[in-house]
Specification:
The protein has about 250 residues and is α/β, with parallel strands linked by helices. The protein is built from nine helices and nine strands. The protein has helices at about 15-20, 25-35, 70-75, 110-120, 125-140, 155-165, 185-200, 210-215, 235-245; strands spanning about 5-15, 45-55, 60-65, 85-90, 95, 170-175, 205, 220-225, 230-235. Helix 4 crosses helix 5 (about 125-140), helix 4 (about 110-120) crosses helix 6 and helix 5 (about 125-140) packs across helix 6. It comes from Mesorhizobium shonense.
């Protein structure tokens, strides 16, 4: 099987209430207001008629203003967001680095959460047990590994999640921005591990505002603007297009 991403006329919509509200309570309150004659629910057209093909060996960078659709695109490719119409084909093992806190059980220990998160990533309990000590050593959070996650600082949670999520690579690697994961020593380890995963992956899709990183890693650039792809070509011209569209150059 050839590793690939193939999208044909993909559209993705959000319900505006569900997209804007951050809690179930606030969503229910909004729905109650709507029933009482408040503003109408409007769908947000997050991805608009997206068509592209990415094949083995490609290193693709995504550019766009905040809210342009980069993160939504990555989550759609990963299968986290269902498409509204069109065709999505993704062949190969997908590994993604975003939403690092996803899958943690607050009342369980860090060690228990290594297993839980591994299962969420589609890995077997036997495999997770085999890499547990490697994950613990990489996260480097000391005795807290045997404490409940709810006692962790935000930085400790990110470090443990990063250690778990990057313990094994995949055919298709999806990255969303640079991950801040603690002190300088840990960040050095994190960057090295990401570069190792990039090297091992057959396909890389990276969303970033860091032009230097995009230039150094990616040959192909895709520019999103309000959910649409407005450029797909070599990275230097993609960066130029992004700057022009967003008023960063004359």
């Amino acid at each position: 099987m050839t590793n690939r991403i193939s999208l044909k006329s993909v559209n993705l919509h959000y319900a505006s209430v569900g997209f804007s509200e951050r809690s179930l309570k606030s969503m229910l309150a909004s729905l109650a207001t709507l029933k009482g004659g408040g503003k109408k629910i409007v769908d947000i057209h997050a991805l608009k008629d997206v068509s592209l093909d990415i094949g083995p060996g490609e290193r693709v960078g995504l550019l766009g203003h905040n809210g342009a659709g980069k993160s939504t695109f990555l989550k759609m490719v990963a299968g986290l967001y269902p498409i509204s119409s069109g065709k999505r084909v993704v062949e190969g093992t997908v590994r993604s680095l975003f939403d690092l806190s996803l899958g943690f059980e607050p009342d369980a220990t860090g060690r228990e959460n290594i297993l839980y998160r591994g299962l969420l990533l589609g890995l077997s309990p036997k495999f997770m047990r085999s890499i547990e000590e490697e994950v613990v050593a990489f996260a480097d959070i000391g005795e807290f590994i045997d404490y409940p996650i709810k006692t962790y600082s935000a930085g400790m949670q990110v470090r443990l999640a990063f250690a778990i999520s990057t313990a094994v690579g995949g055919d298709i690697l999806l990255l969303d921005e640079v991950i801040g994961a603690g002190d300088a020593n840990f960040m050095g380890k994190a960057r090295k591990r990401i570069l190792d995963l990039v090297e091992q992956a057959e396909i890389l899709v990276l969303a970033s505002h860091d032009f230097a990183t995009l230039r150094s890693i990616c040959a192909r650039g895709i520019v999103f603007h309000h959910g649409e792809i407005i450029f797909d070509g070599d990275m230097p011209r993609a960066i130029s297009k992004y700057k022009t569209v967003n008023g960063l150059v004359a």
